[in-house]
Amino acid sequence: TGARAVSVAGAPIRNSSGDVTGRTNNSYRGKTANPFDPIPGFIGTSPSPLPAFLEDMELAKASGKKIVFALTLTNPMVLEDIEPYVDAILVDFESQKSAVLDMIVGETKNGAPGSDPVPVRPQGLLPMQMPKDMQTVEAQYEDVPRDMTSYIDSEGKIWDFGFGLSYNDGRGYNDGLSYDGQALPIPVAYDDNVPIQTTPANTDGAAAIADRIKVNFDYDGDGTADFIKIVKNGSPVTDVVDPVPTRNGSRLTGWNNGTEAYDFRTPVTAELTLTPRWASTGAGWGGTGGGSTGTTATTPQAPQEDAAADSAVSEDAPGQTASGPLAQYSDQASVSSWARPFIERLVSEGVLGGRTDGTIDPSGDVTRAEFTKMVTLALKLTAAGDVSAFADVSAGDWYKEFVDIASSNNIINGISEASFAPNNKITRQDICTIVYRALATRGVTMPAASGEVFPDSASIADYARDAVSMLKQLGIVSGRDSGAFDPLAFATREETAKIVCGIQDFVAAQQPAAAAEAEGEAASEGAAAEGEAAEGGDAAADTAGDAAGATK
Questions:
Q1: Residues of 10-25 as b/e, b for ≥16 C-beta within 10 angstroms?
Q2: Exposed / middle / buried, residue 484 (Cβ in 10 Å: 0-12, 13-18, 19+)
């Protein structure tokens, strides 16, 4: 239903005289296709080869073999139905089959004079976009360049025009900004099914493009976009960019719009440019969160909230003995000393896990999906009612179970009615909101909100203000060294581990009192019931006596 009614492209229809009288309509609208139906003209089989193919994939997986799926393409293809079954996808555009096989089997070729042979590596860039899904294919405008939402693979790479690999003797992944010294278009991603830039010949397409807005991510503050996102007018933009900007000695804590921290819940209604907010890698939840743009980093300060009573905070703890629950992680020595007890505890409880590369990544950012999982497991929450149907949370996503549990307990609401933004980095104010709602599900006693508890309380979103105030009073969160809360700053895995341990301890401290109170009530009720039973026994005895007297 999302396809245009009449396709732009179509074969000419000629009459008996050879004159063109029209063109065939190749629109997808109203048409259906079942991948398991027979494929006309497919050699050697009448049914579809797909069931047998999927069965072969499962058998290969079960045997422990790696699967490389080689595709020869002349047109875009939907890859989301293939990637889950394979370990690698190798795409060529009618290259020699011998070259493809050389790459698959690890063939080598002569290297530089006097050097050893080097492996044959894939090399090249996509000449077209690979669509996110079939809905994307149906919604394209045909005469608009780069008008599809591109497929994002399991490693977060965007299969857009110009995406590809250039190993160049092992120098690694091409970031899309240059290739063999030649400048390429900067990466562009789409937060919705949106065409961009060029006005098509058809009226509907022009109206659709007029409803799209560009968001520029300027990594170094030089006024030039390094990454662009196209969003639908009135929709929020996500903070997921590729590649992620980095800076030695600093970490990304958020984005600024001008001099103000940008809230990624804000509907985009006009083009804007965002610049990174940097903080020293040593700044924790209670330390400096960063508020600068461009290349100026904030002044490094020690984590205030995470400091021990004697204020002896070590920024890093190199040389930590590789033992205990963190021994399995290659970067365990980089866990800060103040955070180590919290990280170890949550890893032991299964609340926090490592990254796929074998690291614990203590200074890495935490996404909304990751924090939802942490809170759900830490408080042992279970499904309690209806779940929210977020368009960006699908069956098969690792976080769906946790998002469903959290939404059924009214712990999360999403950044809009239809979007949870699972891969957005979670902000300080959203951490407080989720924590506060999670505590409410456990029936603990919460203090009353006390108004503006931070100098920048006015900048805290309305939905988060009471939560921030209450958690501040409980001592679970505090401000930066400046006293400000900095609600839109991101949080690291170390910082969130401390917060999660804090709410566990708070709940545990309240539960014994609640249990004692419940025990006391039960004892009182038991005594009352015993008294009632005794009275009942006396009445029964009296009745028996009366009966005996009557008999006599």
A1: eeeeeeeeeeeeeeee
A2: middle
* Residue in 392, 323, 302, 341 with CA at minimum distance from that of residue 497: 341
Asked if residues 417 and 235 have their Cβ atoms less than 8 Å apart, the reply is no
Task: Give the predicted TM-score (pTM) of the model.
Answer: 0.54
350-400 pLDDT per residue, tens = 999 998 888 999 988 899 999 999 999 999 999 888 888 888 898 889 999
Torsion of CA 68, 74, 78, 79, to 10 degrees: 20
Residue 111's pLDDT band (cuts 50, 70, 90): low
Alpha helices in 211-339 (DSSP H): none
Pairing of strands 88-92, 68-72: parallel
pLDDT at 437: 92
Consecutive H or E run containing 429: helix 428-441
Query: In the prediction, which pLDDT does 497 show?
Result: 93
Place of tokens 């063939």: 107
Burial 491-523 (b: 16+ CB within 10 A, else e): bbbbbbbbbbbbbbebbeeeeeeeeeeeeeeee
- For residue 402, which of 382, 427, 419, 385 has the smallest C-alpha distance? 382
Q: How far apart, in whole angstroms, are the C-alpha atoms of residue 436 and residue 441?
A: 9
Q: With H, G, I as helix, E, B as strand and everything else as coil, classify residue 68.
A: strand
User: Does 538 have pLDDT greater than 70?
Assistant: no
